[in-house]
Automatic annotation (TrEMBL):
<feature type="domain" description="Beta-ketoacyl-[acyl-carrier-protein] synthase III N-terminal">
    <location>
        <begin position="110"/>
        <end position="188"/>
    </location>
</feature>
<feature type="active site">
    <location>
        <position position="256"/>
    </location>
</feature>
<dbReference type="InterPro" id="IPR016039">
    <property type="entry name" value="Thiolase-like"/>
</dbReference>
<comment type="similarity">
    <text>Belongs to the thiolase-like superfamily. FabH family.</text>
</comment>
<feature type="active site">
    <location>
        <position position="286"/>
    </location>
</feature>
<keyword id="KW-0808">Transferase</keyword>
<keyword id="KW-0444">Lipid biosynthesis</keyword>
<dbReference type="Pfam" id="PF08545">
    <property type="entry name" value="ACP_syn_III"/>
</dbReference>
<comment type="subunit">
    <text>Homodimer.</text>
</comment>
<feature type="active site">
    <location>
        <position position="116"/>
    </location>
</feature>
<dbReference type="InterPro" id="IPR013747">
    <property type="entry name" value="ACP_syn_III_C"/>
</dbReference>
<protein>
    <recommendedName>
        <fullName>Beta-ketoacyl-[acyl-carrier-protein] synthase III</fullName>
        <ecNumber>2.3.1.180</ecNumber>
    </recommendedName>
</protein>
<dbReference type="InterPro" id="IPR013751">
    <property type="entry name" value="ACP_syn_III_N"/>
</dbReference>
<keyword id="KW-0275">Fatty acid biosynthesis</keyword>
<dbReference type="Pfam" id="PF08541">
    <property type="entry name" value="ACP_syn_III_C"/>
</dbReference>
<comment type="function">
    <text>Catalyzes the condensation reaction of fatty acid synthesis by the addition to an acyl acceptor of two carbons from malonyl-ACP. Catalyzes the first condensation reaction which initiates fatty acid synthesis and may therefore play a role in governing the total rate of fatty acid production. Possesses both acetoacetyl-ACP synthase and acetyl transacylase activities. Its substrate specificity determines the biosynthesis of branched-chain and/or straight-chain of fatty acids.</text>
</comment>
<keyword id="KW-0012">Acyltransferase</keyword>
Length: 329
């Protein structure tokens, strides 16, 4: 990637809905308790979209902040990618809804389905388009309303998820900066470990699918945990190898925020000290595609990276999928 046009992040924005659902709120809804949730996951609270908010509304709020921070308006964009598993509807895409709302007239727009890895997949896609010269300025958003597909009678899953959106503008940056490598992958054989079975062409929505709760997230937590710990390590090592770097070059590690125990296992494997790792799962829980950009944007807002720092993002999720990137900020 080193001889190509340098492409990086030139604007950032995030949004979470106002309503907060705490662990003690959940104690009143299912048989759980704050001690279990905090010790097993690190989560203390999560934000939940208002009834009249859909994924595009969260994405829009993050997008206008990202555009403002890049000093741009919608008309400067020529590509919009929304990574999500909770689009407003099957079609039109959430990206097309945003294209209209942002006034990004004529920009290409599509949704990307790679679950919690979707944001990194989106960054890789936008970077490739821009490096090829096909487009100049892309908006990449990770946005999800997991509360809409969560069964709030299932304690195994309902404590884990939240809603939010993070957005970045991707464009040309000075030589030496920008994305240095990506490592994307999938293990489709594990798809049934984390899925929504109903509502697609295999099992269309019916009274029966609703009754049997086929429109909610199903997850085999233990198996996904094992996968997560494995690929967080392997994807990180592989993307560093591709970038010609090693773990000591990493200034800031921005992992998918699913479970603090998964993040800690990656920190140990990579021997990364706490101050180099972004953790905000306690405040937002797992927001799927929004998780990495929420962590990245929050770190940027807190001044945790300076120009020239090496930022490593890594995520894993449904598919099963993973995605990692090395970025010189
Ligand atoms: O971004 C998508 C990727 N998803 C993930 O990264 C999730 C990966 N998996 C995990 O984070 C963990 O597996 C969980 C947090 C989901 C579960 O933690 P665990 O330590 O693997 O617990 P477990 O599934 O082994 O369950 C232990 C016990 C069970 O009781 P028994 O069978 O031992 O009697 C569960 O029924 O904890 C019980 N349990 C709960 N207890 C209180 C499960 N959920 C709860 C709960 N409150 N909310």
């Amino acid at each position: 990637m080193n001889n190509l046009r340098p492409v990086g992040i030139i604007g950032t924005g995030k949004y979470v809905p106002e309503k907060i659902l705490t662990n003690s709120d959940l104690e009143k809804m299912v048989d759980t308790n704050d001690e279990w949730i905090v010790s097993r996951t690190g989560i203390k609270e999560r934000h939940i979209a208002a009834p009249d908010q859909a994924t595009s509304d969260l994405a829009y709020e993050a997008a206008i902040r990202a555009l403002e921070s890049a000093g741009m308006t919608g008309s400067d964009l020529d590509l919009i990618i929304v990574a999500t598993i909770t689009p407003d509807s099957s079609f039109p895409s959430t990206a097309c809804i945003l294209q209209d709302k942002l006034g990004a007239k004529g920009a290409a727009a599509f949704d990307l389905s790679a679950a919690c890895s979707g944001f990194v997949y989106g960054l890789a896609t936008a970077t490739s388009f821009i490096q090829s010269g096909m487009y100049n300025n892309a908006l990449v958003i990770g946005a999800d309303c997991l509360s809409r597909i969560t069964d709030y009678t299932d304690r195994n899953t309902c404590v884990l998820f939240g809603d939010g959106a993070g957005a970045v503008v991707v464009g040309e940056v000075p030589q030496g900066r920008g994305f240095k490598a990506f490592d994307l992958g999938a293990e489709g054989a594990g798809g049934s470990l984390l899925q929504i079975e109903g509502g697609g062409s295999r099992l269309p929505a019916s009274a029966e699918t609703v009754e049997n709760k086929k429109h909610y997230i199903y997850m085999n937590g233990r198996e996904v945990f094992k996968f997560a710990v494995r690929v967080m390590g392997t994807a990180t090592i592989e993307v560093l190898r591709k970038a010609g770097m090693d773990r000591t070059d990493v200034d800031l590690f921005v992992p998918h925020q699913a479970n603090v125990r998964i993040i800690q296992s990656a920190m140990q494997r990579l021997e990364l000290p706490e101050e180099k790792v972004v953790v905000n799962v306690d405040k937002y829980a797992n927001t799927s595609a929004a998780s990495i950009p929420l962590a990245l944007v929050e770190a940027a807002e807190e001044g945790r990276m300076k120009a020239g720092d090496t930022v490593l993002m890594v995520g894993f999720g449904g598919g099963l999928t993973w995605g990692a990137s090395v970025l010189v900020w």
